[in-house]
Amino acid sequence: MQRPNPCRLTLVPQDDTAAVTDALWARLRREAEEAYEREPKLAPLFFDSILNQPSFETAVFHRVAARLRNDVVSLPLIVQAFAKACADDPCIVEAAKADIAAVLERDPACDRLIEPLLYFKGFHAIQAHRLNHWLWSHGERDFALYLQSRSSEVFQTDIHPAARFGHGIFLDHATGLVVGETATLGDNVSMLHHVTLGGSGKEHGDRHPKVRHGVVIGAGAAILGNIEVGEHARIAAGSVVLKPVPPHATMAGVPAKVVRIAETDEPSRSMNQTLSDLAYQSFNYTI
């Protein structure tokens, strides 16, 4: 019996994935053609990255590889590794579709699909990590660590290859992101720059946060230790979270405290990081 495919395309019904893929690729090509007409001097970028590529996934592989390549790892070597990983695990491609859809949905500065595919280092860093995670899980640890190091240098993100990412991940700006080895991100998580999902000391084993579905983590926040951040939680910018976070809670402060629980919030989609709707007096900080 054929094993069922565990992939799902976040944000769209599973039965529509083929149609969505066709529409996604058609829109990317149309946007690239329009961009070429406006900016013909960038023809090599538009043609090499999109217009001369046969599919969405090859366009993503090529663009990320073009940014990671150097004298040690060539563009064809990285593209070949992507192709091998995706042939083994089709979820990598489905996750990339959900990731690019997440950027368009959540980033008010983005109104074209070609922007994350061509320019946004957050999107590129996630796709590089998906490859690194596959390499790590299949015994190619030195290759994974080298590409992780290269990705850190190029995209300013430090994501351990063993960390597990769900679908529809959005890294806004991405600079300074640190994700530890045993961290887990669920689907539809949004994070801003200088976020740390780290350990709380020198302990070994499972020592990093577990961030559940639909969480938004504001700029400069640190979540430390093997603690769970419940679904649809909101971590305010600059907060330091040291204890488990209930689902739908808003956390703020150093150390962070629960300042609100709102069952209907979907903060990762609204990208609302402000606390203007909360009374300042609710922050009863103690030293």
TrEMBL record:
The EC code for this enzyme is 2.3.1.30
Which pathway does the database say it acts in? Answer: Amino-acid biosynthesis; L-cysteine biosynthesis; L-cysteine from L-serine: step 1/2
Q: What Gene Ontology cellular component terms go with this record?
A: cytoplasm
Pfam families noted in UniProt: Hexapep (PF00132), SATase_N (PF06426)
Stored InterPro entries? Hexapep, Hexapep_transf_CS, LbH_SAT, Ser_AcTrfase_N, Ser_AcTrfase_N_sf, Ser_O-AcTrfase, Serine_acetyltransferase, Trimer_LpxA-like_sf
Residue ranges of the Serine acetyltransferase N-terminal domain?
A: 24-128
Instruction: Report which reactions are catalysed by this protein.
Output: L-serine + acetyl-CoA = O-acetyl-L-serine + CoA
Which is an annotated GO molecular function term of this record? Answer: serine O-acetyltransferase activity
Q: Which UniProt keywords apply?
A: Acyltransferase, Amino-acid biosynthesis, Repeat, Transferase
Domain of life of the native organism? Bacteria
Single GO biological process annotation from the record: cysteine biosynthetic process from serine
Give the protein family: Belongs to the transferase hexapeptide repeat family.
Protein's UniProt name? Serine acetyltransferase
Species of the source: Rhodopila globiformis
* Taxon lineage: Bacteria, Pseudomonadati, Pseudomonadota, Alphaproteobacteria, Acetobacterales
